[in-house]
Amino acid sequence: MSENKVNDTGFDRKIMLHTLRLAKKGRGFTAPNPMVGATIVKDGKIIGEGWHEVFGGPHAEINAIRKAGEPVRDATLYVSLEPCSYHGKTPACSLEIIKQGFKKVIVATPDPNPLVAGRGVEMLRHAGIEVETGLLEAEARQLNERFFKFIQTEIPFTAVKTAASLDGKIATSTGDSKWITNELSRRFVHQLRNDYMAVMVGVNTVLKDKPLLTCRIGQKKVKQPIRIIVDSQLKTPEDAQVLDTRVAPTWIAVTARSGKQKRAFLQQKGIEIILCPEKDGHVDIAFLMAEIGKKGIDSVLVEGGGTLNFSLFQQELADKIYAFIAPKIIGGKEAITPVEGAGFKEITQVPELKQISCKRFGNDILIEAYL
User: How do residues 139-154 score in pLDDT, each as one tens digit?
Assistant: First the structure.
């Protein structure tokens, strides 16, 4: 895609910030497609706006055009992601933009999808529309970090969520963990479950905590994540509430050491079984991530225990971490920590976090960081 960087004026920045806010309204409902916002400006005022509301539905540009209060000919379109140039579940947006007679299009970031990747911009320019790119590009890319990772690698964007006391414990020595963090923190986690396509835990979490792993945030419009259990020997009880597929889909990753009869029984109940090779006596987590990527899962929120977490860190499969710290002291040598397993042997092997930010949820602290 040829370069034509935007002339960053205060007005343009203000409109693109508004466009990014519109894009966020699709959070949790557009995956595996990106969140996209669009704003139409004519004679210095906004005449139309829209966002990609749901996977398979009209794209942001089309929604903005439909909601415009007057003809959009000779208007400027601000869009957070390059308009698509091919007919997928919906017609190509670039063709509609050309048809409607826009004078100018300002794009925050190119689309990394190989089916687009600059073609949308070139199509617009070829039709005589002025196109500028790069306004708030970093912010636009971060907004769709899951989409960017998945479309370029076919491996899900993976975030690890932990909740620990100030001394680094996720449960007491007897296994009691309800509740370390406060209600505000737990509500945020439910929002994350709405945002990510899948939630993953290890079987020990199922056995100890008996979780439902659903999104319960009290909103009318809620998307339930696919629940993935990593269970090498298929120890998940047949009556576990996480197996109730009337609430949300459930997948279980197993190895050949799991019983064929139990696998068949669970499959009859609507549970999807993913047979994986072994690595170090457990499910090969790298194979599993690639496998669920093939099934269209673009993002995974891992709420598992220390063994699963260490495996992800060790194999460099985690992209982000949400680490909640509660102002409590649990103590005890036998009390478990967020990352267990064999641990790293040398400091030089330890993953280093970057782009660190902190938030407060009452007295709890959330540290967000990337690996």
Answer: 999 999 999 999 999 9
